[in-house]
Amino acid sequence: MYRIKQASELSGFSIDTLRFYDKESIAQPSMRSASGYRLYTEDDLSRLHFIRRAKALGFSLKSVQELLELRLNREARVCQDVKTVAEQKLLEVREKMAQLQQFEKALARLHDSCCGGEESARDCTILQALESVEDEPCR
């Protein structure tokens, strides 16, 4: 059994995160001591490592909870259920990548339009482009 500080060190999550996961029923410790301390088992640490890996891949907490549910009930579920969660994340990543490529091209155009010299920034093309109202309005 591990107390929260040990579980934090072993899982790589902060104590505050472990408390949050407990409160939100994402990763609750299996037991509590007579004095109310959270006590984590090896299975609890395995769950925390699973969460850490899923979060490292960019899954939201909602998706992590869904994956945890699938993991817990894997005998009653099919691979397609899990693949659907991963597929949704993959689509999100691809959308973000496309958006980042658009940002990169726009930023490169801005960068290339500026002389970058020692002249006053009063006529800087980057500042002028950012002040321009031709593009879509701020939200």
What is the correct CATH architecture of the largest domain? Orthogonal Bundle
Distance between the termini: 50 Å
> How many beta strands in the DSSP annotation?
3
Low-confidence stretches: none
CATH uppermost class of the largest domain: Mainly Alpha
Give, in spatial order, the strands making up the sheet with the most strands. 1-3-2
Q: How does the helix and strand content classify structurally? A: mainly alpha
User: Which fold name is given in CATH as the topology of the largest domain?
Assistant: Multidrug-efflux Transporter Regulator, Chain: A, Domain 2
Taking all residues together, what is the mean pLDDT? 92
* Residue fraction in strands: 5-15%
Shape: elongated
Helix content: 55-70%
Biggest sheet details: 3 strands, antiparallel
What is the element string, with H for helices and E for strands? EHHEEHHHH
Task: Count the DSSP helices.
Answer: 6
Determine the oligomeric state from the structure.
single chain
Radius of gyration: 24 Å
The total domain count is 2
List keywords for this structure.
139 residues, mainly alpha, 3-stranded antiparallel sheet, 3 strands
Describe the structure.
The longest helix has 35 residues, at 79-113. The chain has 6 helices and 3 strands, in the order E-H-H-E-E-H-H-H-H. By secondary structure, the protein is mainly alpha-helical. Strands 1-3-2 form a 3-stranded antiparallel β-sheet. A hairpin with a 5-residue loop joins strand 2 (31-32) and strand 3. The protein has helices spanning 4-11, 15-23, 42-56, 61-72, 79-113, 125-131; strands at 2-3, 31-32, 38-40. The model has no long low-confidence stretch (mean pLDDT 92).
